[in-house]
Structures are given as structure tokens and as C-alpha cells.
Design brief:
By secondary structure, the protein is α+β, with helices and mostly antiparallel strands. The chain folds into 3 domains: about 45 residues, OB fold (Dihydrolipoamide Acetyltransferase, E2P) (Beta Barrel); about 90 residues, Nucleic acid-binding proteins (OB fold (Dihydrolipoamide Acetyltransferase, E2P), Beta Barrel); about 110 residues, no CATH class. The protein has 5 helices and 17 strands. It has a 5-stranded mixed barrel with strand order 8-9-10-12-11. α3 crosses α4 and α4 packs across α5. The chain starts with about 25 loop residues before the first strand and ends with a helix. The relative contact order is 0.11. This is Exosome complex component RRP4. Keywords: Cytoplasm, Exosome, Nucleus, Phosphoprotein, RNA-binding, rRNA processing. It is found in: Cytoplasm; Nucleus, Nucleolus.
Length: about 290
């Protein structure tokens, strides 16, 4: 097996080109945002010498008179309706604790999941005893944020059949700020693979399922062998996501699909080479700008 070894001095330096929002909206800790006293102080800001300063590095956001700074790198701050991917870390009484890259562990209540077969009834003591048969420690799940507690803890639910236990695939972790909020985060890409873009920065790539969850309630996983072409598509998508994240490009279905197409002339293992990342991502950014995405 060939190994690519490089000297530190021969590393490729990123292109000094900024794509995206107005660079004037980017601030670092201590920067003066405004001297106008008519603005209200929001998250990530503080007042000093009658000026509004930034307390974190990030993007300035203005909503009417409220000024806040959204950090570029942060833990996930959940909002109701967000799609998240998490890992079960504990089975408790009538609930599961889920790790979702948030400041606190999230909670999935027994009453917030589909029963096997999609039955609609009150949860019984027998259901509580069977909890570990539904979901156990280490299982990956997709879910939706149902509520945000006063202390910041997230309450999840998997009542829709599109949510539930995840089977065969690969998990990619990126910064939550890179995942673009859209109406849908479940995408069947025309490359033989599906992708779930979690708002919490966890991205799940798996073979496209041709059979719906149906009567299983989202608890049974398909363990059939995955073909070589599907595995290669999943591996290429994974490297494309990491390449976009390396260059701080927003992740959504179009940007990932364009990166997949632009990387076709390279082997999967070569996509994460620094010079290839720069070339492929620059082509994607130009294409996105031309189409106004």
C-alpha cells in the first residue's frame, strides 16, 4: 500500500479568496461592532466605553435593533424542528440519553418514539422492559428536536417513520455552523447513496433504501451486503463532505453533489490531498456563484 508523506514546508497554502458573506460581517473577540447606542446587545457581545464589542469570533447578525454574533465554531444550539443525528449513551427509566454534540445530553422519551408496527397506544410497563430491544447503547438514530428545556437540554422525538435507528453507513462530523438550514435534510442523491444532514453537524451517508421502513417502526436495520459501487459512492461522498468542511463551505445537497461530480477525475483516496481539495472546492464555489445557489 502506497503512503503519501510530505514535508511541512511543502504543504499547500489555501487560496486567499473569500467566498460567501460580506467579510465586513466577520469579527474577532474585542472588535468594535458599533458605537451607536441605539442597538440592543445580543449573544456574543458586550458593552465597553459606550461601544458594542464582540466577545467571540464569528458573524455579526442584525435583527431590527438587536445585534448578536454567531460563533463560527461552537457546540450545537438546538432549535425546535431541527433534524439531528445522535448516539444512544444510556438507557434510563422511560427515556434514553442521546449524545448530539450539544452542551448537554439530549433526552428521547419512551412516549416520543414509534412502537414496533406503528401501534398507537399508551406505553405500558412491558414496553419499558423492552426498551433495550428497541434502542441500546451505541445505536445511532435520526430524530427531530421536539422541545428545548430551560437549561438547554434537548427533548427529541422519532414519531415519523423517516426517523429512527440507522443501519449501515458512515458518520461524518463537521462544525454545526457549516450545515445550511433547509426545509428537508433527507436526500436521496442520484449517485447510489442517501445523505442525512443533521443540524448538529453529524452527517450520515448510507446506501439508498429501496424499501420503506413500513411496518418495522424504524427499529429494524437492513444488514444485507452493500455492493462495491455503493461503498465507493459512500466513500467518495464522505471525502467530498470533509473537503468542503476543510474550506468552510456551507453543506447542502447541491454543494455536495457538485463536489461529487467535480471529484470524478480523482481516485477516492486522493480527494483529501490539499492541492486536490483546493482545486475541487474552487470549481464548486465558481459553479455555485454562477447559478446563484
Amino acid at each position: 500500500m502506497s503512503v503519501d508523506i510530505r514535508l511541512a514546508k511543502s504543504r499547500v497554502v489555501g487560496l486567499d479568496v473569500y467566498h460567501g458573506d460580506d467579510p465586513g460581517n466577520i469579527v474577532t473577540p474585542g472588535d468594535v461592532i458599533t458605537a451607536d447606542t441605539g442597538f440592543m446587545r445580543g449573544h456574543g457581545t458586550y458593552m465597553s466605553e459606550d461601544c458594542l464589542h464582540s466577545s467571540v469570533a464569528g458573524m455579526v447578525e442584525r435583527v431590527n435593533k438587536l445585534v448578536s454574533v454567531r460563533p463560527l465554531k461552537t457546540r450545537y444550539n438546538g432549535e425546535i424542528g431541527d433534524v439531528v443525528i445522535g448516539r444512544i449513551i444510556e438507557v434510563s427509566q422511560k427515556k434514553w440519553r442521546v449524545e448530539t454534540h450539544s452542551r448537554m445530553d439530549s433526552i428521547l422519551m419512551l412516549s416520543s418514539v414509534n412502537l414496533p408496527g406503528g401501534e398507537l397506544r399508551r406505553r405500558s410497563e412491558e414496553d419499558e422492559k423492552m426498551m433495550r430491544n428497541y434502542l441500546k447503547e451505541g445505536d445511532l438514530i435520526s430524530a427531530e428536536v421536539q422541545n428545548v428545556m430551560s437549561d438547554g437540554c434537548l427533548s427529541l422525538h422519532t414519531r415519523s417513520l423517516k426517523y429512527g435507528k440507522l443501519g449501515q453507513g458512515t458518520l461524518v462530523k463537521v462544525s454545526p455552523s457549516l450545515v445550511l438550514r433547509r426545509k428537508t435534510h433527507f436526500h436521496n442523491l442520484p449517485v447510489g447513496a442517501s445523505i442525512i444532514l443533521g443540524n448538529n453537524g453529524y452527517i450520515w451517508i448510507c446506501p439508498t433504501e429501496h424499501v420503506e421502513a413500513g411496518e418495522t417502526g424504524g427499529y429494524e436495520t437492513n444488514l444485507q451486503p452493500v455492493s462495491r459501487s455503493e461503498r465507493e459512492a459512500i466513500a467518495r461522498l464522505r471525502n467530498c463532505v470533509l473537503a468542503l468542511a476543510d474550506q468552510n463551505v456551507l453543506l447542502f445537497d447541491t454543494s455536495i453533489l457538485y463536489t461529487f461530480e467535480a471529484s470524478q477525475k480523482y481516485a477516492v483516496k486522493d480527494i483529501l490531498k490539499p492541492e486536490v481539495i483546493l482545486e475541487v472546492v474552487d470549481l464548486v464555489q465558481q459553479r455555485l456563484e454562477l447559478e446563484g445557489s
